[in-house]
Amino acid sequence: MKHIKKSSSSSRLFCDDDRSAAALREMAREQSLVTQLRAVVLPAIQLAGGERAEVVAQMFESILDCSAKAIAALKLLRLDHSQVDDEVLLTAMVDDKTRVRKIVPGDGGKDGDDNAKPLRRQRKRRRLGDDSVALETPVPHYDGHQWRKYGQKIINHTKHPRSYYKCTYKQEQDCKATKTVQQQQQQQDGGIEDEPVMYAVVYYGQHTCKPGQTDAAVVQTASSGRFGEGGGEELARSNSCSNISVTCSSVVVDNHQLMTASLESCCNLLDMAGDMATAEVNQYDQLFDVASFSPFDSGTAWAMDVN
DNA sequence: AAAATTTGACCCGT
DNA sequence: ACGGGTCAAATTTT
């Protein structure tokens, strides 16, 4: 019987926290995998020509929507929890600011002060707590939507800039969806050479634009333009309150082996997709917009070169 | 010419 | 005050 007492409440908390965090990670991973699967499956179905493509696309959308909602719900729970046990958490995790975000209700802080500034326009700024979904993927551009880049920023302590996108139909249809994409730091050291470039994608808001006006023929390579050079890297998709990092992998036991195995399967999968697309393009020559469904562009190791 | 991206300034939450 | 999200003029691409 040593010091296993006073910390009992906090350790329990950590346990819960750990478990829910693990659950969140798994769910985010699921999202990443589904996203990647979609990038592989949809192009194939499209090329096979089928009215099924739309159905399948819808199903993918639904699946992703489900997990996004589940993630959001779980996050809310975590948030509540952390508020209730604020004191404990705050004292226990002083040095982990990113993990516990305390929500201060009042915070009058800096009001008054009505200086006469140029007052360009009232900008709504996204808040960190807003519902969002984050995930990591090698195919940040394929998500079935069209995006318009509206900014790029160099983020502290990161090697690659973050790109900001809003729905192409923001104007016409007032769609509020946005997303950010940022290439992940290549985690070297492992023996894995051709490790796929991964992008962190965070999705904010729901799409309210109607897909009807944007069928496959219209969907352009939302990213074929000029990326990759000076620093226009992109990321993929997500939408949650905090940054959940996911790595493509499958269920398992041994962490290390898991990573390796999953990465390999991931690469294989993507290679297959690349081959598929290339083959089809060569064969039909008219490529029915394969590119729009196979965002294997800049930086990544895809064999396909759209142009 | 129109549409999309780049880029630096602007602004706001922390 | 700082960091990062957004705006909008300039530039590039289509």
Automatic annotation (TrEMBL):
Keywords: DNA-binding, Nucleus, Transcription, Transcription regulation. Residues 143-185 form the WRKY domain. Residues 101-137 are annotated as: Disordered. GO terms for cellular component: nucleus. Its main location: nucleus. InterPro entries: WRKY_dom (IPR003657), WRKY_dom_sf (IPR036576), WRKY_plant (IPR044810). It is found in: Nucleus. Residues 108-117 have a biased composition (Basic and acidic residues). One of its GO terms (biological process) is regulation of DNA-templated transcription. GO terms for molecular function: DNA-binding transcription factor activity; transcription cis-regulatory region binding. Residues 118-127 have a biased composition (Basic residues). It comes from the Eukaryota. PANTHER family: WRKY TRANSCRIPTION FACTOR 21-RELATED. This is WRKY domain-containing protein. It comes from Hordeum vulgare subsp. vulgare.
